[in-house]
From TrEMBL:
Ca(2+) binds at residues 601-602, 620, 622. GO terms for biological process: proteolysis. It holds the Pfam family Pro-kuma_activ. It is found in: Secreted, Extracellular space. Binds 1 Ca(2+) ion per subunit. Coiled coil: none annotated. Its cofactor is Ca(2+). This is tripeptidyl-peptidase II. Keywords: Calcium, Glycoprotein, Hydrolase, Metal-binding, Protease, Secreted, Serine protease, Signal, Virulence, Zymogen. The keyword Signal applies. The active site is at residues 314, 318, 558.
Amino acid sequence: MRSSTTVLFWIFLLCSGRLSLAVATAPRLSRSVVHEKRDHIPPEWSHSRKHHPTAVLPLRFALAQSNIHAMDEFVNDVAHPESPYYGKHWTAAQVAAKFSPSHDTVQTVRDWLSESGFAPERIHVKKTKSWIELNATVEEAERLLNAEYYVYKHASGKEHVACKSYHLPAHVAPHVDLVMPTVHFDTIVHRGLDSPPVNRYERVTRGLGMPGAGFRSSKMTPTVPILKNQLEHCDEQITPECLRALYGIDYTPIATEINTIGIFEATPQAFIASDIDEFAKYYAPDIHGKRPMLVSIDGGLVQTLHQGPNFTAESNLDITYAMALLTGKQNISLYQVGDIPEGASFNNFLDALDMSYCDFEGGDDPTVDGIYPDERPGGYKGKDCGTVKPANVISVSYDMNEADVSAAYAARQCAEYAKLALMGTTMLFASGDGGVASINGTCLDADGSLSVHGKRFSPSLPSICPYVTSVGATQVNPGSTVHQPESSANFSGGGFSDFIPMPEYQKNAVHSYLKNHPPAYPQHTFNRTGRAYPDVGANGVNLSLFIQGVHRLVAGTSASTPIVAAIITLINDARLAAGKSPVGFINTAIYSPQFADAFNDITDGHNPGCGTGGFNATEGWDPVSGLGTPKFGTLLKKFLELP
Ligand SMILES: *[C@@H]1O[C@H](CO)[C@@H](O)[C@H](O)[C@H]1NC(C)=O
Ligand SMILES: *[C@@H]1O[C@H](CO)[C@@H](O)[C@H](O)[C@H]1NC(C)=O
Ligand SMILES: *[C@@H]1O[C@H](CO)[C@@H](O)[C@H](O)[C@H]1NC(C)=O
Ligand SMILES: *[C@@H]1O[C@H](CO)[C@@H](O)[C@H](O)[C@H]1NC(C)=O
Ligand SMILES: *[C@@H]1O[C@H](CO)[C@@H](O)[C@H](O)[C@H]1NC(C)=O
Ligand SMILES: *[C@@H]1O[C@H](CO)[C@@H](O)[C@H](O)[C@H]1NC(C)=O
Ligand SMILES: *[C@@H]1O[C@H](CO)[C@@H](O)[C@H](O)[C@H]1NC(C)=O
Ligand SMILES: *[C@@H]1O[C@H](CO)[C@@H](O)[C@H](O)[C@H]1NC(C)=O
């Protein structure tokens, strides 16, 4: 009681403080506050001249989303095993309505613009309500935003209009995320044919699908013989039969007409159809002749120009294992994202899944994302916004470094995964193959940048997003059978976010790890309060695979992810067959006490990097193997018990 009284008292003080301020200034014209400012011009740009007062600027006001702060509560409602609304996922329309800028937000900004002298017919509210657009002369914009516009010149000769800072009235500021064009330089590296192309290799993502970006050829053997009696050799070669035995997968799907699963692949990665058939011949006869259903996004195509392992091992692995575990009965969708010149990013994929994301907060960032339409020769001349209905389960065996993006960029993307969670999609991401280090073995310096001398652990994106499920890799130890415990693979990505706080659902598990097995590292080595990952593990070492007709063994969290995706898809099948919903976001359930015995605890192994041994796998959750590997039967039973 005492504390709530205190809180009320403070609210009263704040309100009265605000009131007196409003009275002290002219009605409606509240104090002007700096909304954004830039301290330095980016490299290779120089100040050129003051912009001409009568030039026209296409001003865009990104309106603040409603209700984002209540996201945890919304997701808990549909995903917590004790919630009466478990499985009652939202429709896309409900999501759009809940988060789209409020009437009050739209009205406040519109009123301010009218009061500033802009005729109503000049003020255009986008259909999604995410933006207000207005063509203003430089003179008008400078008065409106209390800013000064300059023309900047790039070393390449390209020009860009920007200001150093801008202001908004205090009562408008909370309703606007940002205004463009203002201080931002990221919108200009427009790759028209007239400017030197910033090609995909120069983006920080290096193009998600580019050779060496995700799956590494070092994790692949030369050709190996095909062994008979597979179950006796699972310590040498993993096949679908080994995986079924390891995790107790014994289920034939029946609700295949209504169930869906999608596998994300970034162009130029491409699968080879004849390799699926070759695999089928030895390990999965019922998928012979089956193909994934191609869903092309932003010109995504299964290219056949480059067919070496660097371009095909990833897709072959993801698609073959998902198909084999799901049997020939369940179709899978292939989300092939990006054209050849521009490639793909996670944001390009999310743009296709959600129309409103495409349009929100300035959209894609050319330093990270593919920019469409792609005007280069052979480029995709469209941009896919909201063209794809998300599958019940989406498996993504790609990752990037948290340190490659800004905190705001990560937060925006994570909020989008949360919306997919609300709509009932299980998003599974590989936890990365660098252990506690980044994809290429670099770690963080004190200033947060990646370098070969860095000492601080480098977290992986999107695994650090709270509403995705992150999957680490495990292995059958040499000499062991499928009936003995696996250990974690030494490349299995794991750690703690520097951007995103630890979500409620994992606090008990992670705190008990930190308390009972305190990692012997200085405080600054990793962030003990950040979102911790991975959430689960699955086999990722020595998987049999055909690549260009050659039988090889491959390793990576890339393998573990489609395995878990297939398991969740089978569970969805059983729930759908029982007239229930798909499971959607699973973490709230699997970290809860009800699911305590649904995973094989992995207590052996570690994930070295950054000049350290990394974290140790231990009893209970750990940042190498998560909660452990799935026990299919138990998971199926537990999830079927839920409403
Ligand atoms: C701004 O001007 C451009 C070019 O004339 C036009 O296409 C666009 O519709 C205008 N936008 C608004 C909001 O008036
Ligand atoms: C595959 O990619 C790796 C890493 O980028 C590179 O070192 C290797 O030479 C490539 N192999 C082929 C055959 O292109
Ligand atoms: C599954 O894929 C096959 C071949 O691509 C297609 O003919 C069939 O209609 C698909 N089934 C469903 C339920 O989508
Ligand atoms: C590692 O990747 C980062 C980008 O993520 C890049 O800046 C850096 O040059 C790479 N370092 C090495 C040693 O390859
Ligand atoms: C994987 O395969 C390699 C080479 O075939 C073998 O030496 C190793 O024991 C296998 N298992 C693991 C866990 O590395
Ligand atoms: C990981 O284990 C493999 C063998 O399974 C070994 O070759 C490799 O050196 C180990 N890597 C690290 C970083 O310890
Ligand atoms: C640790 O994570 C929290 C979010 O939980 C963040 O606010 C904080 O800045 C992070 N600390 C460091 C040193 O990165
Ligand atoms: C992991 O376990 C080893 C052996 O018990 C120990 O020496 C090491 O300090 C542990 N690592 C961490 C990070 O706690």
